[in-house]
Amino acid sequence: MPKGKTIQIYLPEGNPQGIKVCDINTSFVKAILIPRLKVNKLKDSKEISKDLEKPGIYFLINELDDLNTFEIYIGESENLFDRITKHDNTPDKEWNKVICFLSDKGNINKAHCKFLEHHCYIESKEIDRVKVNNTNIPTPSSLTSQDRDLALYFFDDLKFLLGTLGYPAIFEKIRSATQKDFFYCKNKDADAKGSFLEEGGFVVYASSYANLEISTTTTNPSLIVMRERLIAEGILKQEGNKLVFTQDFVFGSPSTAAAIVIGHNANGWFYWKTLNGETLDQLKR
What we know:
Elements: E1 7-10, E2 20-24, E3 29-35, H1 46-51, E4 56-63, E5 70-77, H2 80-89, E6 97-103, H3 110-127, E7 131-132, H4 145-164, E8 182-187, E9 190-196, E10 202-204, E11 209-211, H5 221-232, E12 236-239, E13 242-245, E14 249-251, H6 254-262, H7 268-271, H8 280-284
Parallel strand pairs: 5-7
Antiparallel strand pairs: 1-2, 2-3, 3-6, 4-5, 4-6, 8-9, 9-10, 10-14, 11-13, 12-13
């Protein structure tokens, strides 16, 4: 049976949409989530700005639209405060949140951070659920066995905290599904297979078909933008009079997945059905 963990989330502004300080009571790893609009106000909080003067690793999060999709940039620095401030003042990357990870005990140095930057990049690329915007593969540092184990322990808690803060897709694989987990969405030329993720989201599997055209009655402009992006990135590819998924893709919700598949606004809880005709709503809600 898995062991439970206690996580503390502190909101220094009393605003759930603002800065978050997150840690695990049995760990030395601390996460600080900062919306980009709050970066220039970090100096107002001496405690947080002092924490960010430590070495650490960070993730720039670029949330692309209102459909729960995002891309990341992974970096490291001996002084997180200086690096994040520089990113905010230099229009070199698109991002709207940053999550910094540092050690409360001060036992992480530059070499650990370089190792972690490389390790996070490789792990995320292998999972391949979000786009990583690093231009080059980060160069790893050489660590002793003891320091490597410390860095990997740091990574395990970093991964756990990322999931807690709402970004499990960076490092968590899509779980294997069996026949009883499959739901189907069929409409005109669309014929898609997917499954509901208990941790959040809905995956549509490779080789599923979507309708080629978007209905003229759709009232969701984000649907058009998302479809165009999926086509541009090769996730959806035209095949005759329909679109085919070239890989598994996780959507933020069953409704988003259904809307992309059939080409118009849809309540996915009722569009996704088993082979017996039972809806996702009936079985999961």
